[in-house]
Design goal:
heterotrimer, A mainly alpha, B mainly alpha, C mainly alpha, A: mainly alpha, about 65% helix, about 0% strand, elongated, B: mainly alpha
Chain lengths: ~160, ~90, ~110
């Protein structure tokens, strides 16, 4: 059953704000408190809000379940792949090969309290993004499957 | 009979746990050698400001790999249970 | 007695959790008792790593240099995620038991064996 027009309009505006806040928590995981797991849970809350505001059959028409399962698998494979590349470079498993070097995320950090820079961290921001994608896909699948029995129990 | 046994077990558990809780001191931890090494050297080896994230993803990254696998398995289990239930409902209605 | 207050809260929470598991008859209330016990263990792990007058172990715009221990917070993060996975699977099992037996009461489930 659809909610009224005011509820649908405010759910649209809140959905954009929740997604941007969740991506901010995932991306700045190495500077402020947060990281992959917390940011992924915040983004999955946006999916729950849209499912409650619109009716369940409409949301099922918009999002395919196979896309979410693919997204969860891609997250776990990316997390293990970034760790396995370090084995291919000659060092141990889970070695941080991008820290303190000159390439993608490798700036050095001065010692002591300082305002943080986004360019530091080595392998850590890539792992944060991979875990965020996996937790978002997994929690959205659980929410969509568990709400599938609401309409049917009223009839039968 | 069963209620009396349960209450005895709960009271025994409470006495055992409070003997443990009175003995500990709050605010003065013991054996902090590993954490002192992480806080002192984490910033120049990993080039990160957040020491908790370096412990989760770099110094103890193998535990995080195991935890991601547990979350993945739980989501697969939930999806399998609800797929069987929905097929039963469709077969009963037809 | 007030210098040990987090540990006393842990003892009270675990006693409430164990009492809920042993004394209630509804299946969903038993699962909520397991969740309360998980929360008590998480609080215990974090309360073990506190230092007097310390701040969070983050160097961005830090105020002082005396920091709390960092490893118990990482272990609690893992434990919370495992608690979420356990709760999701337990509630799905409750749905399947209701569809098979028709009731969620523990005493009646033991008698109706199909």
């Amino acid at each position: 059953m659809r909610m009224s027009k005011i509820v649908r309009f405010s759910a649209d505006m809140l959905f954009a704000a929740i997604m941007i806040f969740g991506f901010y928590i995932i991306m700045h995981g190495h500077l402020t408190p947060g990281g992959g797991f917390q940011g992924g849970a915040v983004v999955a809350t946006g999916a729950a809000l849209v499912t409650v505001a619109y009716s369940y059959e409409e949301v099922l028409g918009m999002i395919k379940k196979t896309g979410l399962m693919l997204q969860e698998s891609i997250g776990l494979v990316m997390f293990a792949g970034v760790a396995l590349i370090a084995l291919g470079l000659g060092t141990t498993f889970f070695f941080n090969y991008l820290a303190n070097s000159g390439s993608l995320f490798g700036m050095s950090v001065p010692y002591g309290p300082n305002p943080g820079e986004l360019n530091t961290g080595g392998v850590l921001p890539l792992m944060n993004i991979a875990v965020g994608i996996e937790v978002w896909g997994g929690l959205a699948i659980v929410i969509l499957y568990m709400l599938s029995g609401i309409g049917k129990t009223k009839e039968g | 009979m069963r209620k009396v046994l349960s209450i005895i077990v709960i009271i025994l558990f409470g006495v055992f746990l409070s003997l443990l809780a009175i003995d500990l001191t709050f605010g003065v931890p013991e054996n902090t050698g590993m954490d002192d090494y992480f806080i002192k050297n984490g910033q120049e080896q990993i080039a990160t400001n957040n020491i908790v994230t370096t412990v989760v993803f770099d110094y103890r990254g193998f535990d995080t790999l195991g935890e991601s696998t547990v979350l993945f398995t739980a989501v697969i289990g939930v999806a399998l249970i609800y797929r069987d239930l929905r097929k039963e409902d469709v077969d009963e209605n037809e | 007695m007030f210098w040990n207050l987090p540990y006393i809260a842990v003892v009270l929470l675990s006693m409430i959790g164990i009492a809920t598991i042993l004394l209630k008859r509804n299946l969903i209330k038993i699962f909520l008792g397991v969740s309360i016990l998980t929360s008590a263990v998480n609080l215990f792990i974090i309360a073990l790593g506190y230092r007097e007058g310390g701040i969070a172990p983050i160097y961005t715009n830090a105020v002082s240099e005396k920091m709390v221990m960092a490893t118990p917070q990482a272990l609690t993060l893992t434990s919370i995620v495992i608690g979420v996975a356990t709760s999701a699977l337990m509630l799905s099992f409750a749905v399947i038991i209701y569809k098979t037996y028709g009731t969620v009461n523990v005493d009646e489930i033991k008698e109706l064996k199909e």
